[in-house]
Design brief:
Elements (H helix, E strand, L loop, with lengths): L3 H26 L21 E7 L3 H11 L4 E8 L6 H14 L23 H4 L21 H11 L4 E5 L4 H9 L10 E4 L14 H5 L1 H8 L5 E4 L1 H4 L6 H9 L3 H20 L9 H10 L4 E10 L10 E4 L26 E7 L1 H13 L1
Parallel strand pairs: 1-2, 1-3, 3-4, 4-5, 5-8
Antiparallel strand pairs: 6-7, 6-8
């Protein structure tokens, strides 16, 4: 029988080593892995300290892991949380964000209410994974704190505009809030240091054969963000499917003494029981959103490739599909007989980097080590 204290010590030592490597890698990467398009404002000065982030989210069980991971990582400073409808409706994601911050002892971080529905579509949720309350049915106390008066897209705009080139966004839900912010302020993408998106897939979907859930819920918003000119990294199903939490790791979370890690353990235990019962994710416990946060902190966890991403918005069977061009002519569908013109190829022009491989064991060690410390 394995000694749980030995396993805990091993993970803590691995996390400490990963944290040191993360700091060096992030410094070498200049705050993000993707080469910035010409329109993106460079960093203003060489400020030393944690990188400033906004987490745009739809909590959500794996969102909870991602938020806790960010709060327990000294490499980043969470400036705001901006909930959006997605995994569950906004009237659940908003209080979930507030209660997660309270559990972690960080109710000082502002939370702003975001979009309650996609730009053009009816809301589709994922209670079959996240439970009816978004946290796998695990009950926590009602939050005592309140959201700020600003809307999510107003808060995003204000924080970014006050510190152009210094604030990054980690977007781990449907991209409706960002699309609304960019619609109000078309120059805003050039002021954002980087955007890390958990969403999309170059290898098939998880809600339809074609589409990943976040892109499926609001494909028009996703398309607007990818066409915005912002500096984007996509952490999609191509890598998040490759790292599943183990029974031992859940037990470590459940037995930890810190409130955030223990809450994560309760949520993950209930989620594992649900996905095993429903068959979602093949009965495996995946941490999609936490991988986006982890790879922002330590870019060496994933391998990236330049891509040009478009999001399908018109297909009856493929809406939300991530179409990724990789150093090939950007060819669209052949024209219909009654359509004018021909199908002209466009030269390859990357608008993002997509994660195509991940060191899954290192990621899980990093995640669990941070949450149990």
């Amino acid at each position: 029988m394995k000694d749980p204290d030995h396993s805990r010590r091993r993970l803590l030592m691995q996390a400490a080593g990963l944290a040191a490597g993360a700091a060096l890698t992030a410094a070498a990467a200049g705050g993000g892995p993707a080469a910035a398009p010409a329109a993106v404002m460079p960093r203003t000065g060489a400020a030393v300290g944690p990188r400033r982030i906004i987490i745009d989210t739809d909590p959500g069980v794996d969102d909870a892991l991602a938020i806790f991971l960010a709060l327990k990582s000294p490499e980043v400073k969470v400036e705001a949380i901006t909930p959006v409808a997605g995994n569950v409706p906004l009237d659940l994601t908003l209080p979930n964000a507030l209660r997660l911050l309270e559990i972690a002892g960080r109710s000082d971080i502002p939370v702003a209410s975001g979009a309650s529905r996609p730009l053009k579509r009816r809301l589709v949720t994922a209670a079959y994974v996240h439970g009816n309350n978004g946290l796998a049915g695990v009950e926590f106390p009602e939050p005592k704190t309140k959201p700020v008066a600003e809307s999510a897209h107003q808060l995003i705009r204000r924080i970014v505009r006050q510190s152009p080139g210094e604030v990054s966004i980690i977007a781990i839900g449907p991209l409706t809030n960002l699309a609304l912010a960019f619609r109000d302020d078309p120059q805003l993408p050039s002021q954002i240091r980087s955007i890390t998106i958990m969403g999309g897939s170059l290898s098939g979907g998880n809600i339809t054969p074609a589409a990943e859930f976040n892109s499926y819920v609001d494909p028009e918003a996703a398309q607007a963000v990818y066409r915005s000119g912002a500096r984007i990294t996509m952490i999609g199903l191509d890598v998040t499917r490759r790292a599943a939490l183990s029974e031992e790791q859940i037990r470590m979370l459940e037995s930890t003494g810190n409130p955030a890690g223990h809450a994560a353990g309760r949520i993950m235990r209930a989620t594992l029981e649900q996905v095993r019962r429903t068959g979602s994710n093949g009965g495996r416990l995946l941490a999609h959103d936490a991988m986006a946060v982890a790879s922002f902190i330590d870019p060496s966890l994933v391998t990236r490739q330049d891509v040009h991403i478009e999001i399908e918005t018109e297909g009856e069977l493929t809406a939300g599909e991530t179409v990724g061009y990789r150093k090939t002519p950007m060819r669209r569908s052949a024209p219909l007989l009654d359509a004018p013109g021909a199908a002209d190829d466009a030269p390859f022009q990357p608008n993002a980097q997509a994660a195509v491989d991940v060191d899954g064991d290192r990621f899980l060690s990093f995640l669990i080590g941070r949450l149990v410390s």
